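Q: Structure tokens for this one, please.
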Amino acid sequence: MQILGISAYYHDSAAALVVDGEIVAAAQEERFSRKKHDAKFPIGAIAYCLKEAATTLQDIDQIVFYDKPLVKFERLLETYLAYAPKGLSSFITAMPIWLKEKLYLKTLLRKELAKLAECKTSQLPPVLFTEHHQAHAASAFFPSPFERAAVLCLDGVGEWATTSVWLGLGHQLTPQWEIDFPHSLGLLYSAFTYYIGFKVNSGEYKLMGLAPYGEPKYVDQILNHLLDLKEDGTFRLNMDYFNYSVGLTMTNQKFHALFGGPPRQGEGNLTQKDMDLASSIQKVTEEVVLRLAKTVKKELNVDYLCLAGGVALNCVANGRIVRESEFKDIWIQPAAGDAGGAVGAALAIWHQYHEKPRTPGTGDAPKGAAKGDRMKGSYLGPSFTTAEIIESLNTLDARYQQLDDRELMPRLAEILEHGNVVGWFSGRMEFGPRALGGRSIIGDPRSPKMQSVMNLKIKYRESFRPFAPSVLAERVSDYFDIDRPSPYMLLVAPVKEKLHIKMTQEQEQLFGIDKLNIPRSQIPAVTHVDYSARIQTVHKETNSRYYELIRHFEAQTGCAVLVNTSFNVRGEPIVCTPEDAYRCFMRTEMDYLVIENLLLAKSEQPKGNFDESWKTEFELD
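A: Here is the predicted structure, written as tokens:
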């Protein structure tokens, strides 16, 4: 049976294809449209999924959407009525698109699908709907390695739920309880994202990266005025300080007065106050998540926890759950946001609607093992043959060498050792927001200049943004205080103390962004200012080529770690095709590009292929 899952129309549209319970393909629309966080109907993603499975829309058995629009519409109406006459401008803005499109979503979906398949709507398979948090929960539990687990979903808002708890057992998910809109941890975090001057639904990563540069000075103000937090982790927001339920902004004048001024303008300088606010909301978020996790453990008497929803991408909070809760293990859906809802919706239909059994892996996998889950390392996107790549590069008039891995890997290890930055394009593209060695930019983590070089000359983004280490799975405990795999870059852990570089008395007096350029460890490019790192363990079973590259780098340098960041620049989605990769390579100061077994040196490319006119728009993003 073939089930196509779709997430669309809010943010991060995606499609996923499940065949007899196996996730065959999944991808976000942004990778094909080249529009970051694209919310439109995922034509490109659906077309890719069908091509990957060598099937057609008419051959699909069922199509499922990850949300129930009528229930969401009910929530919008009830919210506007509850706050009337406030919110009139927001109501007038929202209603036309609902009355024209979203309220009749089933009809709209069938029209779009028929257009894509070039057929009549009567020839299409039936369209079903799951609840938003049901899709999140299914995306977290069904691919997980666990037979029985608690599932905690935390996001902005679905239909009504913003936080939900489920019990997963075998092939069933049973809802336990939820917290409803407008009380939302995700929206609280987004309110501070907005206030500090970053974009909501995309800048939350920046807020988390900025937090270690500040001090949590505003925690008491948040808990005393904004958030009524109970011992068990449940909470209510004081809506007097927020505008998102009725307005077109996240915060209001009362919020601004509480924190001493209006929101930072996007291109304004970051101040110590901004860093302290980021530190404070991050600390509060961690506390809420940790309390909820402990409560769920106690209530459901389970050994394992699964996480999904946008808040589950907060890898610092996830790291605290690992270290401070009593769960034997946790598993986080790598595409934890709305994109992952496409996978979850399809799996929910297979396992719950059709009552198909599920065979999970073992939750007690040996240390360093990358087995158990069904996400295939999240390598679920397109790949390209050598012939296709060569044709693309020839069209672009690129210069390249073709080498087999026996030649390429040791040569790359030397290139990296000499401080070069390399674009790495290999195998299937990752599903989710993290680059995991399929579409990555890589470098030497021992270089104290690498973080600054990558941020300012390659990514064209804020200098404080941290990078992640890719480490051989069996060597992770040699570098970091963590005793388990982290294949999806969703856990933060401390760097081993033996690798720390002791700061001078003068350096210890620095604060804020001045901390940035002080090497903290023997792998400074991946060590954050608080001596932590966002870890990706690399496993031979799921990405043998990336594993072999790191192994050769270790043989060359004695270091089993590489810097890994996503293959894109600011404001642009991660690259999908060889053409995307070459253009990104030529528009940045990357030194080398590897596309499968083709090696390209920047110094050998035709001068006419350089184009830097595009940079202006991203500098203003």
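A few notes: Residues 253 and 261 are 9 Å apart (CA to CA). The longest strand covers residues 161-169.
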